[in-house]
Structure formats: structure tokens, C-alpha cells
Amino acid sequence: MNLPAVSEFSAIPGQGVQAEIGGKVLRVGGPRLLESGRVQVPEERSRLAHRWGEQGQTVVYLVEEDRAQAAFRPGRRDAAVGHLGGDAHRR
Q1: CATH number, domain at 57?
Q2: How far are the Cα atoms of 35, 48, 62 from residue 90, in angstroms, in the given order?
Q3: Model pLDDT for residues 2-18, shown as the tens digit of each residue
Q4: Which end of the chain has fewer CB atoms surrounding its CB within 10 Å, N or C?
């Protein structure tokens, strides 16, 4: 399996981490990462993340540019994911 090179890895204090992977800047973190900028969260991902949060579960987001591409719960096998330029679906 060929994995893209990771560069420019850094912590974002109190929010998460970011790195350049395959020429794209990706960020991973919790709700405070979303609050820090203008991040769009598609409706389906937002609903699931809100429900998970109400259940006391940690929600982590994968952000590319200004869009949350995925929301997931660490240690769980389900996630609300999307495709670049596509619709979200649940796994």
C-alpha cells in the first residue's frame, strides 16, 4: 500500500492537529476546531455529531480546507463521511 507523504505536521493548541498530506492541508480535532474558523459541517454529519455528543461521546472531525469531510467517534466503527464534492453517507 502506498501512503502519501506527510509534512508540516503541527499541533493546534486546544483544538487538534494539522498536516499536509498528498498536497492537501488536513486538520483533525474536536468541536473547538470547528469553532476556530469558518468550517462547514454538512447537515447529516452535524445531526449525527450532535446526537453522539448528547450521548456523552467524543466526536472528532476531519477537516479539509473549510469543510468537515468526516465526523467519527474514536474507538467506534461508525462514522459520518463524505466524498470530496459528494454527498455524505454513514458507515
Answers
A1: 3.40.1110.10
A2: 24, 9, 15
A3: 888 899 999 999 999 99
A4: N
Residue found by looking up cell 454529519 in the block:
45
Number of domains in the chain: 1
Whether the CA torsion 38, 81, 13, 57 is positive or negative: it is: positive
Residue 1 in any domain: the answer is no
Q: For the whole model, what pTM was predicted?
A: 0.77
Q: How far apart are CA 71 and CA 28, in angstroms?
A: 10
Task: Locate 89 and state its grid cell.
Answer: 453517507
Structural domain of 67: 6-90
Does residue 23 form part of some domain?
Answer: yes
